[in-house]
Write a structure and sequence with these properties.
46% of the residues lie in helices and 10% in strands. It is α/β, with parallel strands linked by helices. It folds into 2 domains: 143 residues, 3-Layer(aba) Sandwich (Rossmann fold), CATH 3.40.50.1000; 65 residues, DNA polymerase, domain 1, CATH 1.10.150. Strand 4, helix 8 and strand 5 form a beta-alpha-beta unit. The relative contact order is 0.17.
C-alpha cells in the first residue's frame, strides 16, 4: 500500500475487533446451550465464532427445531444482557476511531449481531453515535461471510468499494470483504492465526489496533 492512499471509509466488525466482548459471548453461549442439555465448552464456542447466533448453535448441536433454537436464543440474550455493561473497548479501539474522526474518514459497523443487539452494546459502551451506519445480520438476506453486508454499508454511505477498507478478526470478516472486492482487508490475529486470516482474504495482518491504525493512516505494511 502506498503511503499516499487513505481509505474513504473503514468497515469494522464489532466483537473481538473493537470490543472485548468475546469472553461474555462465550460464557452466555455456554450457559444458553446448557439450558437445552448441550454441554459445550468455552473452547468449542470460540472455535465457531463469527457467524450469526443460530449458525453457531447449529455448528455445535446440529440442526435444531425452531422452538428449541428460540429457547436457546432467549436464554443467551437474558444472560448476555446481564453481563453487557462489563464489556470494554479493546486496547487502541477508542484511539483508532478518534484518529479516523480527526482525518474526516467515516466508519461503519458490519456485524453478525442483530441490529438491536449491536445498538444495545454500543449504548452500553457509550458509542451509540460513533458509527455512520450499522449493518447487522438481520439487515440483509445473507450475512457475513456473504458480500451483502459490506455492500449495503457502502451503498448507504455512497462510497465506492475501491475506496474502502475492512477490519475484522474472523474468517467470515475476511471472506465478506473479499467477496465485496474491498481492496484493503486487515485481519486482527488474536482469535485466529495470521495464516488463517491470509488464507481467507486478509491483505494485511495486525496484532493490535495500533498496528491497524498504522496501516490505515500511515500506509505501514504489517504483513502483506
Amino acid at each position: 500500500m502506498s503511503g499516499q492512499w487513505l481509505p474513504g471509509v473503514v468497515l469494522f466488525d464489532f466483537d473481538g475487533t473493537l470490543a472485548d466482548s468475546e469472553p461474555v459471548i462465550t460464557a452466555s453461549f455456554v450457559h444458553a446451550m446448557g439450558t437445552e442439555g448441550f454441554a459445550v465448552t468455552a473452547a468449542q464456542v470460540r472455535d465457531v465464532f463469527g457467524p450469526p447466533l443460530q449458525t453457531m448453535a447449529q455448528m455445535l448441536a446440529g440442526e435444531l427445531a425452531p422452538e428449541r433454537y428460540e429457547r436457546i436464543r432467549i436464554a443467551y440474550f437474558a444472560d448476555f444482557n446481564r453481563r453487557l455493561y462489563t464489556i470494554q473497548p479493546l486496547p487502541g479501539a477508542t484511539e483508532l476511531l478518534d484518529a479516523l474522526d480527526a482525518r474526516g474518514i467515516p466508519f461503519a459497523m458490519v456485524t453478525n449481531k442483530t441490529e438491536a443487539s449491536a445498538a444495545a452494546q454500543l449504548a452500553a459502551m457509550g458509542w451509540e453515535r460513533r458509527f455512520a451506519t450499522v449493518v447487522g445480520a438481520d439487515s440483509v438476506r445473507e450475512p457475513k461471510p456473504a458480500a451483502e453486508p459490506a455492500l449495503l454499508a457502502l451503498g448507504r454511505l455512497g462510497i465506492a468499494v475501491e475506496r474502502a477498507a475492512f477490519v475484522g478478526d474472523q474468517e467470515p470478516d475476511m471472506l465478506c470483504a473479499t467477496a465485496a472486492e474491498i481492496p484493503v482487508v486487515i485481519g486482527l490475529a488474536h482469535a485466529r492465526a495470521a495464516e488463517t486470516l491470509v488464507a481467507t482474504g486478509a491483505t494485511y495482518v495486525a496484532k493490535t489496533l495500533h498496528e491497524v491504525e498504522a496501516v490505515l493512516l500511515r500506509g505501514d505494511s504489517i504483513c502483506a
